[in-house]
Amino acid sequence: MKAHDGMYIDGAWRPAAGTDTIEVVNPVDEQVLGRVPAGTAEDVDTAVRAARAAFPAWAATPPAERAARLGALRDVLTARKDEIAETVTAELGSPLSFSQAVHAAVPILVAGSYAELAATYAFEEKVGNSTVYQEPIGVVGAITPWNYPLHQIVAKVAPALAAGCTVVLKPAEDTPLTAQLFAEAVAEAGVPAGVFNLVTGLGPVAGQALAEHPDVDLVSFTGSTAVGRRIGATAGAAIKRVALELGGKSANVILPSADLAKAVNVGVANVMSNSGQTCSAWTRMLVHAAQYEEAVELAATAAAKYGDRIGPVVNAKQQARVRGYIDKGVAEGARLVAGGPESPREQGYFVQPTVFADVTPEMTIAQEEIFGPVLSVIPYEDEEDAVRIANDTVYGLAGAVWAGDEAEAVAFARRLDTGQVDINGGRFNPSAPFGGYKQSGVGRELGAHGLSEYLQTKSLQF
């Protein structure tokens, strides 16, 4: 896990334009793992020019050949899955077992799904006297977060390459070593020079330069709603396409007919997963008033089991942010039934698994994305009340519904203003579209819907 001291541009590791570097810190022991270049606007411009030059040939490459390169990428990632897991664990602090099962395994599934889709997707169709073509949009600027460092890269780069686009990636500054490992895998998979390029750096410098670059045709960003709003405004001024996967405050609605213990335990596990650093986490648990105290007790007991099972949050700033929200919950009158703001360890950016009861919908902890292992349990009086509470945030990314009857759960889920809902603990599907309503974003990732974000439509009339 040696850090590269350059940028991956036009098929080779090249020196950065400047001399500034970014320290990569292990959030468990706070030790420096390495340093990577802090990219500048000049680095971004070099990468974009390489991507622009490579675009015509890659766009003209038959879909079957693009599929073959993605299949090779999947195979390389599979062969290096242990190294991937170890790298994510070092950068993010995720327990190794979780890094193996999720951080390494899921991107392999997604890369494989796009290898298959690229070979079968209907890039051309007949509509009456017209032939309609789906063509690659051009150069993609991909800006990815740190919470799922490889998954978020693959969820953008794989469909872009399948579509025939070329890419410049600016990964999160907290987890750049995983991105460098991915660049190595791209080269090993035989993807042509210039088709994928990597520039490490800070968001306000390299990220902004990428979003503003006139030769970038689409910006795909995952991160906070505040930053997404700025990127959307920048792109709008240039009439440039965007795909934005932003924040969430997802509701886990447990209807009275559900298996309460199972729904609560799975719900707590969902929030504690990845130390709560998941945009789609079910951070609001809605329970009928008649079952409320039982659910609170179950949630508190379940959360207590995660004290030694979750890793830290990513950095000191995030730790302070999450602990600040816990203090805010107490100050606004919520009842702390598990965890609290005190750090459980002297070293590392750890936060206690925390559960609040007596949370009202208007409280800060019920409205704002915390991005840590913090759960709010909220009572509701009837189904109408549950729908109102579940939809009463600016977000609409994900959610869950539990009921004894699947049809009952589906009927309720259809009333939620959110992009994805798990029914009775539904399994992850790498081909299902993922994305949000309202301020949770614009566009979709994964599957055919994710591929279509990187295409534009042309029709010929005969």
CATH superfamily of the largest domain: Aldehyde Dehydrogenase, Chain A, domain 1
Structural class: alpha/beta
- Report the C-alpha radius of gyration, rounded: 22 Å
**How far do the termini sit from each other?**
57 Å
Number of domains: 2
Shape: globular
CATH level 1 name of the largest domain: Alpha Beta
Q: Tell me the fraction of residues in β-strands, as a range.
A: 15-25%
Question: How is the biggest beta sheet arranged?
Answer: 7 strands, mixed
Arithmetic mean of pLDDT: 97
Please state how the strands of the largest beta sheet are arranged side by side.
14-15-16-13-12-18-19
**Secondary structure: number of strands:** 22
Low-confidence stretches: none
CATH architecture label name of the largest domain: 3-Layer(aba) Sandwich
CATH topology title of the largest domain: Aldehyde Dehydrogenase, Chain A, domain 1
Total count of helical runs of at least 4 residues: 15
Summarize the amount of helix as a percent range. 40-55%
GO molecular function, one term: oxidoreductase activity, acting on the aldehyde or oxo group of donors, NAD or NADP as acceptor
Active site: 245
Domain Aldehyde dehydrogenase: 13-459
Pfam families: Aldedh
Helices and strands, with pairings:
Elements: E1 6-9, E2 12-15, E3 21-25, E4 32-37, H1 41-60, H2 63-79, H3 81-92, H4 96-120, E5 124-127, E6 130-136, E7 139-143, H5 149-163, E8 166-170, H6 176-188, E9 196-198, H7 203-212, E10 218-222, H8 225-237, E11 241-245, E12 251-254, H9 260-272, E13 284-288, H10 292-304, H11 316-331, E14 335-338, E15 354-357, H12 364-367, E16 374-380, H13 383-390, E17 395-396, E18 399-402, H14 406-413, E19 422-423, E20 437-438, E21 441-442, H15 447-452, E22 455-461
Parallel strand pairs: 7-8, 7-10, 8-9, 10-11, 12-13, 12-18, 13-16, 15-16, 18-19
Antiparallel strand pairs: 1-2, 3-4, 5-6, 6-22, 11-21, 14-15, 17-20
Domain Aldehyde dehydrogenase: 13-459
Keywords: Oxidoreductase
GO molecular function: oxidoreductase activity, acting on the aldehyde or oxo group of donors, NAD or NADP as acceptor
